[in-house]
Amino acid sequence: MKKVLLFVAIGEATTGLALLSVPSIVGQLLFGEQLSGVAIPATRVCGIALIGLGIACWPGPPLAGMLTYSALVTPYLAYVGFAGGLAGVLLWPVVVLHFVMAGLLARTLTRPSVTGIAR
Questions:
Q1: Predicted model pTM
Q2: Rounded Cα gap, residues 114 and 28, in angstroms
Q3: Nearest-CA neighbor of 55 among 8, 97, 89?
Q4: Which end of the chain is more exposed for a tag (fewer CB within 10 A), N or C?
């Protein structure tokens, strides 16, 4: 069971890295179409999520996967808002929310378990 989970975790993290680094190529290979416009940042957020999922399924604390996701998606969304000019009404509240969640997750991951939360 552990070997299968490790295999799948590596596959998801690798797919996430591909979506993050070359979203248009992955879109072309999967859907037969180049991705453009808002599909590029949305695909990259999905890539970040798959990296987090892969880390969560890796041997070790699953909490690390959520921390990875929040820690990577926060600066990426901020970058999209500042440099990409894409900013809907929820973008900045989501950036702040993920920043706070990343801080809470980091604190939880580095503290001894006193609440009984499995790391």
A1: 0.84
A2: 48
A3: 8
A4: N
